Amino acid sequence: xxxxxxxxxxxxxxxxxxxxxxxxxxxxxxxxxxxxxxxxxxxxxxxxxxxxxxxxxxxxxxxxxxxxxxxxxxxxxxxxxxxxxxxxxxxxxxxxxxxxxxxxxxxxxxxxxxxxxxxxxxxxxxxxxxxxxxxxxxxxxxxxxxxxxxxxxxxxxxxxxxxxxxxxxxxxxxxxxxxxxxxxxxxxxxxxxxxxxxxxxxxxxxxxxxxxxxxxxxxxxxxxxxxxxxxxxxxxxxxxxxxxxxxxxxxxxxxxxxxxxxxxxxxxxxxxxxxxxxxxxxxxxxxxxxxxxxxxxxxxxxxxxxxxxxxxxxxxxxxxxxxxxxxxxxxxxxxxxxxxxxxxxxxxxxxxxxxxxxxxxxxxxxxxxxxxxxxxxxxxxxxxxxxxxxxxxxxxxxxxxxxxxxxxxxxxxxxxxxxxxxxxxxxxxxxxxxxxxxxxxxxxxxx
Length: 447
Hints:
Blueprint: E1 11-13, H1 17-23, H2 26-40, E2 45-49, H3 55-70, E3 75-79, E4 95-99, H4 103-111, E5 119-124, H5 130-133, E6 145-151, E7 154-161, E8 170-178, E9 182-185, H6 190-193, E10 200-205, E11 214-219, E12 222-226, H7 227-240, E13 242-246, E14 256-257, E15 260-261, H8 263-269, E16 275-276, H9 324-350, H10 361-372, H11 384-413, H12 424-430, H13 441-444
Parallel strand pairs: 1-4, 2-3, 2-4, 4-5, 5-6, 10-13, 10-16
Antiparallel strand pairs: 6-7, 7-8, 8-9, 11-12, 14-15
């Protein structure tokens, strides 16, 4: 089945030097090239010539290069037979300039227009017909290939392409250039000019596991694709005038195994399908072999684990409502209050402000502990200093008891699920869980 060759193009300017003087002066050709270069904001201009050109043609190429360089353009002359089309300018895509001499040269150039790094412009003599020149030349759908041809006092700029190598040549007039008015460019964007695929039939591979599509079999290798991505594809088919032949659904999206891709990506790389209708993650492994559409959704990967056993409290649970630092602060506060009670008791006894009872260190610790537990005392000290320590101890005890009781009841009433790990590395080190991943692209992230 025929298929579309997806390749974004360069601008090649093909001008028959033998006809420039009769058809278009060199100075006018330079102005057309300059106008097109500014329109596309190309980073540089590259003039392609053949090794069979005459000395006169080569001199005229040098003249053209000199005039373009005089306009502060980065310009070079290259032999198209040995030229690498992956050439890059310092900024933006290059503008290639080639002068037409025969159909064989044009066919060889068109066979190499699979690069997305440049654009093309072809100068054609007035006497030549576009249909005849491009009869055996395939210009891909996503290739911006311009043909400049003189028509009276103007130079017409026509873009040419084919939906497929078996489809007729498509021609759109995109601009006119004249000495008086300069370049007049169409206001219709590129994708609106190429929004009709003339009923082309895409071979599409699909997956039965893709969450963005729902595949229904009608028998006899006939399938209906619905779901979010299925609706998006159907809308594109209606707007762009194409149809789809769905291939047998695949299970996997595709990973590379021993240098070969499987799943839907394998179908694409083996040229068995033109497009894959599924939600693919744009991984660095796939970018060299696939062309992705713009991002339409954000993917989130979730790890599900078996619910662990419930956490049952033990004797250490009674210390869990408060952190270790807080328990340490409570202990230090109790010791300080005990020391304060013992010191104030001794001083009060010495100066006759206290009764016959004196609080030793052990007595003070037990009194402060009792106040923390909201327990009363068998006697009340007479001195205000001892009473102040007592009051402080009871206030601290009331606040501590309220906070601890609420936290303990909540801690015991709510059943918590405690995970034995927090990261993937801890999951591997734990060893109590078996890790399972569906075969596919996501598995490669964990290898």
